[in-house]
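Lab notebook: predicted structure, single chain.

Context: the supervisor wants predicted structures on file for every construct in the current expression panel, including those that have not yet been purified. This is the next one on the list. No modifications to the sequence; it matches the entry in the shared construct table.
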Amino acid sequence: MIKFWPLPRLGLLQQISLIFCILGVILGSGLIVTINIYEKQYIKQQLIEQNERVLSFLSAGSLNAVISEDRPVLETLVEQVLTTDPDIIKIILFNEVGKILVERGNLNGQGAEASISFSHDVVLAGETFGTIELYWGTLSFSEQVSQRTRPIIILATLIVLIMTGSFYVSIKYFIIKPISRINGKLLQLSDSTQIAPLNLPKAAAIEFGNLAESVNSLRQSQNHREQILADLEVAKDKAEASNEAENKFLAVMSHEIRTPINGIMGMADMLKEGHITDEQDKYIDVIINSSENLMIIVDDILDFSRIEKNKFNLSINRFSFFELLGHLENEFSFEAKNKNLQFSIINLATKDLVLVGDEGHLKQVLINLLSNAFKFTSDGNVTLETDVKDISKNNVEICFQIKDTGIGISAENQKKIFEEFKQIDDGFDRCYMGLGLGLSLSQKIVEKMGGLITVKSREGIGSCFSFSVSMEKSKEIERHDIDLRTSDVVSVLSSMKNNGTKLNEEQNKKKVLLVEDCITNQEVVVAMLKNTRFKVDVVQNGKEALEYVKHHNQDNLHAILMDISTPEMDGITATQEIRILNDDISKVPIIALTAHAYNDEKDLFISSGMDDYLAKPVRKRQLLATLTRWVPQVH
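Prediction complete. Output recorded below exactly as produced.
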């Protein structure tokens, strides 16, 4: 970049001084030029007047001599003129043809360059008989002018100097000094220094006084701002501490709720496999259904909290769309039977459709919408319609419609049903219970997936909730889905359901180590794996698990079910200690079996060295499928 200003940057005082110097030079130069012009005009005017007088004398005295070309007379006349007027430096007389009759000079030390010439014709009766040329020296006239203008120049110079000095002092006192003081205060303000109020001289300009008041106001604002910042810092620390406490509370709440529910649902599953009456089976279904509903509420609260903190992430995996709909049909068939409603799923997609996306949260949205449909419908039917449209070779758009013949929603209430903790009836006498969180959370989840839930409804007629999401197609079924249908798991369940016979001899069973400090959860897992090809050893914490592993090898320990929160040594630390062992036992599959249910926690478990993850409450089918995946049956 070219620099057009080669000089260093100057202060305001130096800049103004430089400007005044330039103005002084310009004024001085202008004064000199003006005087010089005046001098020339004055000299010219004086010479014109004196030249006319001399020429008139010469013309009258030389007329006859020029006509007769009487040189002696002309020479005498010229000498007389030169003697009388010393400013004339040369006189030349010409006849009518231009011949020089007389030429005399009186230089008196003056050069031709300091002269002005005039010519005049010698005329008689309109006829020209010759020409007179006079050369006048200008030195004496210049001296006269200089004597007259010298005092003017001196006086003008003094005036310029006095004005410049006065301006300099005035600007320095009335402008530069206030600006410097204001600048100093501003610098102190920028350093967050506690400073005294700014006071300027009373003679300072009004604008500077206003600026000083602004600086003082800024000083007060700065002090106030610092106090506000200090208060905000304290508030920020409190908010962060509160947020951290909230996160810990939610994590602990989830963990503490999931742990007993795991025992409830696990034992309920075990009871259903025993010899029970139809009425007892109905009671157990109520227990399981209520537990599952409670888990839906817990999951909704956790997901809502993470969405509010912008920490919600989708979990991408492969899943069978047909199996997802099958799970929904199983979950809501019991409720439809209890309320004497017709429940149907109309699926236009093929049975072999496998998708890549967040199955868990998609299922959560559908459960929330179906739960609302059943809650607000007392007569008629609830229908889930699905359709799949190809977007491209690898992507499809899945359209869902959840229809019911319930109470419907007014146009006014349709505007607020997607707000957090809002319900159609929210008084103490409300007929329908719930948090008022399901629709708001479902909308946010669907938006994360790139869709939007819409509703069409008429009071007394029913409602229809619709949404669409895009997902990738996959030709492969995730191994988890295949494992759910393995002959091993099916045979285990069928054998337990029918007669409880054992699958293998005791010595051929695969050993599983359960690391769990909760007695109830120990009994649940042991009961789930009873009469299967797995046998269970139990330890209380990660420290005992590490000691257990050191005394076994990979041939007689085939998997570890590792709880995360155990006393003395947690599951993550125990896993890391096991992985650094040099023996083959360090490669044994470790499956997290925990009530910590956040997705990022799952990533933490996997990154710490665990192979898989099961969230409590865990169902027997899930547990067997996962163990079968990591400890396949050898035929």
